[in-house]
Amino acid sequence: MLAADALSDRAARLAALRAGLFERPARVSPKFFYDAQGCALYSAICELQEYYPTRTEAAIFERHREEIARHLPRGAQWVDLGCGDGAKSWPWLEAVGARRWVGVDISPQWLRISLQAGTGRFPGMALAGVATDFTRPLRLQRVLARFDAPPVFFYPGSSIGNFTPDEALALLRSMREHLGRDGRLLIGVDGLKERHVLEAAYDDALGVTAAFNLNVLRVVNRELDADFEPRRFAHRAQFNARESRIEMQLVSRETQVVRIGAAERRFDAGEAIVTEYSYKYAADGFAALLRDAGFGALQHWSDERGWFHVFVAAAA
Ligand code: AVI
């Protein structure tokens, strides 16, 4: 497994986490959701009745896999961005006759799991794992240059929605810079839909998303030696139609003082910590973003309700 240099910059990551908590409003980057507990809770979210994106994207992939594969290079190196357990990649490796799988994730734990699963399932295939943080520009040129095959950058699950449009543009540009003439991007993005559907997906009846959100306070406690008490905060998820995004927050249930390392931070009753934005895109809006990032030859698939969109794009 290769550790990209960005990840070794732990001190800078923690300094940014700490600084965010002292801003007004306070904020915590969603990349801190994914410790072992957070990964387990996210997997549970993906199974929830209310959380339609995973299921809807999987149905698009199932239904159109052969057609989508015809727009991708054969014998590619399949670059799975945010690979998790790798399961979303496996049917594609067969469909495009991929010769190498490169898993990329912020979590070394997920990389170990996915590399093990890939080895069992594809014994002859070249496999690599890269630990990196997508809030920095991708630098995978050296890893990809070790193998002579065009890359397919696979970015499913609408993870692109967790970046602001400006950040998404920068990330898409940095993907495009890796593609060369024959490489392709295969990306899934969540569509705009009615408020009640969106808000239920991020505030489910069982409280799994609430637990996922609150768990970040435990991560903060561990990373910054802080004493947040999850019970003293409430989960909130609201759709901001003007910004076209779900906003997840943790709202202080009372006035309280929290210790963060050697410092203290007072939270008023009702004061919120912003933990995640999840942007929703109309298909033509996302196509415009891809074009701004230097992509062309766009192909697009959606489900019947237009709830989720899948794009294949090449460097223009
Ligand atoms: C990972 N990401 C695409 C999820 C989303 O829908 O924005 C994270 C998530 N947050 C709450 N539920 C799921």
Automatic annotation (TrEMBL):
Gene3D superfamilies: Vaccinia Virus protein VP39. Keywords: Methyltransferase, Transferase. Residues 16-313 form the Histidine-specific methyltransferase SAM-dependent domain. One of its GO terms (biological process) is methylation. GO terms for molecular function: methyltransferase activity. Coiled coil: none annotated. The keyword Transferase applies. InterPro entries: EgtD (IPR035094), EgtD_Methyltrsf_superfamily (IPR051128), MeTrfase_dom (IPR019257), MeTrfase_EgtD-like (IPR017804), SAM-dependent_MTases_sf (IPR029063). It comes from the Bacteria. Pfam families: Methyltransf_33 (PF10017). NCBIfam families: egtD_ergothio (TIGR03438). This is L-histidine N(Alpha)-methyltransferase. It comes from Caldimonas thermodepolymerans.
